[in-house]
Amino acid sequence: MTPLRLGTRGSKLALWQAQWVKATLARHGVDAEIVVIKTRGDAEVDRPLRELEGKGFFTKEIEDALRAGRIDVAVHSLKDLPTRLPDGLALAAVPARASAAEALVTRESGTTSIAGLATGAKIGSSSLRRVAQIRYLRPDLEVVALRGNVPTRVQKVTEGRDGLAAALLAAAGLDRLDLGGRIAARLDPLEIMPAPGQGALGLEVRGDDARARRELALLDDPESARQVAAERALLAGLEGGCQAPVAAYVDARAPGPGARLYGRVTALDGSVQITASAELDRRDPVAVGNGVADLLKAQGASRLLAR
User: What is the DSSP string of 257-305?
Assistant: First the structure.
């Protein structure tokens, strides 16, 4: 049988993820090969993502290759994947999720929280969600646009380029690239709430590809799939894209028998932040996501996003 062709971006983190999928499939007796595809988000690394028009900066070209039959599986960081998939494509599997937490990387040792950064310090991020929440917590900090792959962003902070004192990155990406030692603090997800689907991979296929669906089912983790289904439904309910200042997080630490879905929308200038939550119904996580989106709308989320 011919190997499954895994389409991926060419960054170190994306390649790590595709290689992990390939190795995991191999342990189940399934052969796969990796096909690297350059995306628009990779090509325009000098511009903040919010300045690029459209959606799917890191996914469109890979999805185009999938629809054209040049690959069989698109391997995504799920937080980059728009909630509405192109016609004919489907999310076949969500492997076990890594940490969803945000990580603080600092130039100098000893700073272990955002509160501990010096007044007026420069902190790097190009994510509107992170920028808005930083401004809400610390309006005195100067937020600097920070693009590039994960090792490059870490290096920019370590070298203090452009006066950077710190940056926020996804802890999962740092861990996967053996850069966990550069993390000054793993932030509580209820302090800086992550992107919907952060820490999870999404394996996308053509909807009629029975073979790919069957073999990828070996990698699916039902609990992770439920969590990200709820978070992505919340994002879709607010009609927000991957770059909108919308955060979502399923907290399995919540007291009581079940996990809890939290959602958050923050004004880009940090002046207003609204948060809502509901207990996660594992039988219908999408309904819970829609319900928390409605709670946020009732508090004015749509007006904040319209800004």
Answer: SS-EEEEEEE-TTSS-EEEEEEE--TT-HHHHHHHHHHHHHHTTHHHHH
What is the chain's pLDDT, residue by residue, as a tens digit (307 residues)?
Answer: 899 999 999 999 999 999 999 999 999 999 999 999 998 766 555 555 554 444 567 899 999 999 999 999 999 999 999 999 999 999 999 999 999 999 999 998 889 999 999 999 999 998 999 999 999 999 999 999 998 999 999 999 999 999 999 999 999 999 999 999 999 999 999 999 999 999 999 999 999 999 999 999 999 999 999 999 999 999 999 987 767 899 999 998 766 667 999 999 999 999 999 999 999 999 999 999 999 999 999 999 999 998 7
Q: Which of 42, 72, 80, 140 is catalytic?
A: 80
In three-state secondary structure terms, 305 is helix
By C-alpha distance, which of 251, 242, 35 is closest to 129?
242
Q: In terms of C-beta density within 10 A (0-12 exposed, 13-18 middle, 19 or more buried), how is residue 140 classed?
A: exposed
Helix, strand, coil percentages (3-state) for the chain, rounded to 5, are 35, 20, 40
List the beta bridge partners of residue 89. 206
Contact 291, 278 (CB under 8 A): yes
Q: Tokens in use for 242?
A: 């991957």
Q: Which residues pair with 77 in a beta bridge?
A: 201
| Statement: the pTM of the whole predicted model exceeds 0.90 | yes
Active site residue 209: no
Element containing residue 161 per DSSP (H, E):
none
Domains and CATH numbers, the chain: 4-96+199-220 (3.40.190.10), 102-186 (3.40.190.10), 235-301 (3.30.160.40)
Q: How many whole angstroms separate alpha carbon 200 and alpha carbon 170?
A: 11
